């Protein structure tokens, strides 16, 4: 893949990477859910073909079909027949399971701090790396588009658009491995965020911080991009600690 590969293709490659041999069914379900929940494949969009997905995930088509069946039964996708058929992400996705903050805090133990430290290390580094690269016009447009999508998102769609913007920043780093790691930590983070209220004031503040991060990346200013992302992730961490500890 060239340094300036299409950003959407880069995201697909990062999430639809080969699964490990030990638990192919479980990991296939996890990869597909990542792509859906993080907005790489949006509601109404079609998943890659069965043959393509099986090859990219390095699983049998039987395993892939079982994983898709599980997601169909859970309400995430539907299969359509005919010339323009395939597996499509449902327009309305299942709502996240709500867990009481105090209960989640007990279940997490030290896992909250582990997730927050990992998130900070990965996403601050991704912003700095993205600002250090000579981005293509496609990559710049992709970042701008994701920023606009997040700023204009409805409340019900905000978490998915927010996740997709952060994943786009990781994609702009040019490292598929970093993008995969950010996708993994975003899934952990979203499980925590789903347990606390989505506050309008916090959304406004987050949008302002997102703007600062993307502007620094587009201006090729690594130091400012790093500081802006540090401020952003610190704010989210403070909110989570306030509700969960």
Please give a quick description of this structure:
With 245 residues, the protein is mostly helical. It has 11 helices and 2 strands, in the order ααααββααααααα.
Distance between the termini: 44 Å
Classification by helices and strands: mainly alpha
- Helical amount: 55-70%
- The mean pLDDT is 88
What is the strand tally? 2
- Give helix and strand order, one letter per element, not per position: HHHHEEHHHHHHH
Order of strands side by side in the largest beta sheet?
A: 1-2
The CATH superfamily of the largest domain is GntR ligand-binding domain-like
Q: How would you characterize the overall build of this protein?
A:
The protein has 245 residues and is mainly alpha-helical. The protein folds into 2 domains: 7-89, Winged helix-like DNA-binding domain superfamily/Winged helix DNA-binding domain (Arc Repressor Mutant, subunit A, Orthogonal Bundle); 101-244, GntR ligand-binding domain-like (Four Helix Bundle (Hemerythrin (Met), subunit A)), CATH 1.20.120.530. Helix content is 67%, strand content 3%. The protein has a two-stranded antiparallel ribbon. Strand 1 and strand 2 form a beta hairpin. Helix 3 packs across helix 4. It starts with 6 loop residues before the first helix and ends with a helix. The model has no long low-confidence stretch (mean pLDDT 88).
Keyword list:
245 residues; mainly alpha; Arc Repressor Mutant, subunit A; Four Helix Bundle (Hemerythrin (Met), subunit A); 2 domains; two-stranded antiparallel ribbon; 11 helices; 3% strand; GntR family transcriptional regulator
